[in-house]
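stuck on this fold:
=====
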Amino acid sequence: MGNPFVRNKGRTLTLAILAAVFVTTAGSTPGSTDGPSLSLHIDLELSVPADGDTVRSGLDGVTLLFSGPVEPRLSSVRWIGTTGDTVSLRVTGAPDEPSTLTTEAPPGENGRQKLVWRTVSVDGHQAAGEISFVVAAPEFAAPSAAVITAAPDEPSDSVARESGGGESAGAAEFSTSRITARGLGLFCLLGFAGLLWFGLGTKILEEHRPHRLASILGLWAILLLAVDLLLWMSELRVPGAGLGETFSAVVGIRSGAVEIWRVGLAGAAFLLFTGTGMVRLGSVLAMAAVVIGALGGHQATIQPLVSLPINALHLGAATVWTGGLLLLASWPADALVEDMETGWTFTRVARRVSAAALLASAVILATAIAQEVLYLPSLGSLFDSGYGKLLLAKSVGFAALIGFGAYNRFRLLPALESGETGARPLQKGVRLEVIVVAVTVLIAVVLAQVPPPLD
């Protein structure tokens, strides 16, 4: 029979995660980033026809030119006629023009019409928008070169101009259900990999409570990251495409491969740890599942030779810090050395965690500053851009953790070692730190959806 306290703790954590996912998913509505997309997240730059144009003869097709490469297999264009009829147009791309999409000819019909488009950039961010135009053609007997009259207040010779109003809806959308699943999944993965890291070369994870917590976190990391992947695939799914076809397209882009590998590596680490007790190999695979995230997102498109290793170090240090906090939070605080199967006491574990956290915090601080230099054009961008404000919020969380860590290291840990206080005050502060880490991870997930103000 296991320890009832540990069993109840595991059930409580499970129920808390389920409740958070359920409440957020049930009450979530899609949201979009404010303002036009910037250079990292794709924009519709040109279109034929353009928003507001008048078409005088039949169109051979529609051409959309974006600010960066897009994935044709995950792109869709819907034509909406004057009476509301909707037709999905076949979308194609060209290997020599990765930023351009073309469609088949839309149905021939006079009157005001609309094109609703959606696409995905190579780094996995979505963009969507619509183009309204008027068709005033005498006939549609056979397709012919389009004759387009520019919209009012535009140069008359504009055949393919900037999309203007059609771009305003082009910001990538993301749901709070995905943010929650992804954020909690990444937190669980950081904790799982971090606990396994502390188990390297020691018998720490042979203690029941840390072992049980690592198992719970590993399982939930797999489940939540798999849910995030499925939610993302459902958002990317093109009308008429099956799940298998969407999965094949997702695998073909860098960010999709990263997400699939992350779930796979986390699953392999979990099975090795729980099934065979192979902490060493499990730790390597779990850390790989964390660090592989550096291959996707902003760092994959902004000076990748510099930003990829910086982000990998940032994630690795965050893993060590998170794992250390969870190890202290789960360790039997009042147990004597003779009560422990491994000979490790809370004080000894606290010293080990404190030393690792000190190094990890230095790495996180250095890499965070480097990322700020890479992603922000000026210090003022911290205050006048959505990305900068989220970065400030993340920095506040990190500063709070630094404050907690300094107090623990220089006040509570010496008092614990001298016998002045017991383990309870330190463990209570550590559990509060765990909550701050979880919130900071959620902020970081939202931050990854917002384009840096590189322009």
In short: The CA atoms of residues 261 and 289 lie 7 Å apart.
